[in-house]
Amino acid sequence: MAYLPKDKILIVADIYTPGAPMQATPPAAAVNLYDNIKGYKLDVQTSVGLHVRSGSWAEFLQFVQKPNERSHNEKRAGHGLARFICC
């Protein structure tokens, strides 16, 4: 993982694939990424994946949370937040 604070860009590989089927329990690596983003108070507006299509911050939040947490946090995710972009 790499973070470019001036540009608010997070670069990640092999942790999250936008559009992947939701799992009953999110992968530990994705939860760890989320915890680190929040723990370090990173202001991520764009995330660049190395192998995947683009996706929104709301999609990532949905991916890392258990099913019963998803609807609550979808409401908090907002509109027009970060996009996950693949190169």
Distance between the termini: 15 Å
Proportion in helices: 25-40%
Q: Spell the H/E element sequence.
A: EEHEEHHE
- Calculate Rg over CA atoms: 12 Å
Q: Can you list the strand order of the major beta sheet? A: 1-2-3-5-4
> Roughly what fraction of the amino acids lie in strands?
15-25%
Low-confidence stretches: 72-82
Mean pLDDT: 73
How would a crystallographer describe the biggest sheet? 5 strands, mixed
Describe the protein's architecture and organization.
- This protein is an alpha/beta fold.
- Helices cover 36% and strands 20% of the residues.
- Helix 2 (57-64) packs antiparallel against helix 3 (67-77).
- It starts with a strand and ends with a strand.
What is the fold's blueprint, element by element?
Layout: E1 2-4, E2 9-12, H1 28-39, E3 46-49, E4 55-56, H2 57-64, H3 67-77, E5 83-86
Parallel strand pairs: 2-3, 3-5
Antiparallel strand pairs: 1-2, 4-5
Task: Give a summary of the structure in a few sentences.
This protein has 87 residues and is α/β, with parallel strands linked by helices. It has helices at 28-39, 57-64, 67-77; strands at residues 2-4, 9-12, 46-49, 55-56, 83-86. It has one domain (2-86).
